[in-house]
Specification:
Layout: E1 2-5, H1 8-21, E2 27-31, H2 38-48, E3 63-66, E4 75-79, H3 87-91, H4 94-98, E5 102-106, E6 120-127, E7 132-138
Parallel strand pairs: 2-5, 2-6, 4-5
Antiparallel strand pairs: 1-7, 3-4, 6-7
Helix pairs in contact: 1-2
The protein binds adenosine-5'-triphosphate and magnesium ion.
Length: 147
């Protein structure tokens, strides 16, 4: 599925659509080169789940967590860009962070990738003439869920 995202409002709408469909255990894998809008879409999802205020980029912390009641469900926002090896994801305790939560993963390939999980929604962002394009691939658990 290919989506056109001409502006920030389109990112907000896609974020809201994803947020409404999320279930614990899901992964939203946000791929794309530098500056393609991964954090922008993650912020839109987190805001649509109920968060108010800043959403710091996890560039340096690697992981930022969000919990109910501020959000509809627990969420981990991760940026794996700085991992030196995929095994580091395990070392920082990713499995524990993910337990019962949604994972929003920027640079998922640096953590070994999540596309083999049925709950993985893969989004590849690319720059376009106007704004961005998203290539969306649904894991088996996502079929029929995005509306
Ligand atoms: N659909 C869009 N149309 C136009 N500009 C956009 C769109 N989405 C995001 N941007 C802009 O692109 C810039 C980079 O966005 P963002 O920081 O989210 O990228 P990123 O993929 O997280 O980058 P990095 O790899 O450095 O973490 C921001 O200035 C943002 O406002
Ligand atoms: Mg980013």
């Amino acid at each position: 599925m290919k989506l056109e995202l001409p502006d920030l409002a389109a990112m907000e709408r896609l974020g809201a659509r994803i947020a409404a469909a999320l279930r614990p255990g899901d992964v939203v894998a946000l791929s794309g080169t530098l500056g393609t809008g991964k954090t922008t879409l993650a912020r839109a999802i987190i805001a649509a789940l109920g968060h108010r205020g800043e959403v710091p980029s996890p560039t340096f912390t690697i992981v930022e967590t969000y919990d109910p009641p501020a959000l509809r469900l627990p969420l981990v926002h991760a940026d794996f860009y700085r991992l030196k090896h995929p095994a580091e994801a395990e070392e920082i305790g990713l499995d524990d962070y993910r337990s019962g939560a949604v994972l929003l993963a920027e640079w998922p390939e640096m953590a070994g990738g999540f596309a083999d999980e049925p709950g993985c929604l893969s989004i590849i962002l690319e720059t376009a003439e106007t704004g961005r394009i998203a290539i969306v691939e649904l894991g088996a658990d996502w079929l029929g869920r995005l509306g």
